[in-house]
Recover the amino acids of this structure.
């Protein structure tokens, strides 16, 4: 079990309440579904990966704000939370099957959301966002939820973060520290691929990481990029 915890209670003030800009950057949707999904993730994943999952959501929502996309009008906050927070669940023992981790995770998320009574259209949208979150050039063409999910994850690796203020970034990282997330994610993906080759079909994300890591445990390009990103400072 992870020792991950929610940040202070005032960070969960529902959207629309009176908080400062920095406090707003930590707000999570205050719903039963969100709390249940976060509990699932923190039980199944390490704290480093769970923190990454929540940061991805917070960055995705900042991106939505930057694009002028409004929750409830342009996207569903709970579905965005589900897609971002569950995007790496396929790397956990709870959802580790014979398929690509993205697909195993999407299938797990779909079952979980269905059990919570989420309508089929919402379940399908989250499945697609998770399954495509490593598919650049495709996810961006599959609607706002897919784009926000992929780009929120990418922002947590330091990509396209110019519009995020230093105060917002510091608040997010203070509440959800990085804890060596980049190396842990790569190691888990590579270990799964070595153990179950069907999880790394040719030219998939896992296959690329497996080849880059190699027998000599070379640093992968995604780790190198993260090490030279804004968040490495």
């Amino acid at each position: 079990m992870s020792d991950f915890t929610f940040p202070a209670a005032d960070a969960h003030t529902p959207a629309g309440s009176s908080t400062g800009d920095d406090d707003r950057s930590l707000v999570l949707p205050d719903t039963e579904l969100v709390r249940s999904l976060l509990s699932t993730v923190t039980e199944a994943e390490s704290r480093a990966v769970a923190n990454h999952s929540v940061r991805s959501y917070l960055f995705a929502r900042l991106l939505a704000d930057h694009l002028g996309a409004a929750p409830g009008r342009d996207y569903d906050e709970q579905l965005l939370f589900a897609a971002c927070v569950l995007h790496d669940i396929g790397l956990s023992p709870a959802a580790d099957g014979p398929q690509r981790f993205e697909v195993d995770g999407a299938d797990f998320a779909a079952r979980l959301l269905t059990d919570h009574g989420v309508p089929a259209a919402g379940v399908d949208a989250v499945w697609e966002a998770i399954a495509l979150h490593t598919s650049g050039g495709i996810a961006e063409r599959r609607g706002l939820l897919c784009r926000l999910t992929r780009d929120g994850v990418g922002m947590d690796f330091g990509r396209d973060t110019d519009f995020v203020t230093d105060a917002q970034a510091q608040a997010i990282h203070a509440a959800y520290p990085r804890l060596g997330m980049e190396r842990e994610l790569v190691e888990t993906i590579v270990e799964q691929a070595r153990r179950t080759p069907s999880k790394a079909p040719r030219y998939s994300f896992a296959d690329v990481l497996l080849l880059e890591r190699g027998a000599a445990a070379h640093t992968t390009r995604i780790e190198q990029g993260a090490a030279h990103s804004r968040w490495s400072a």
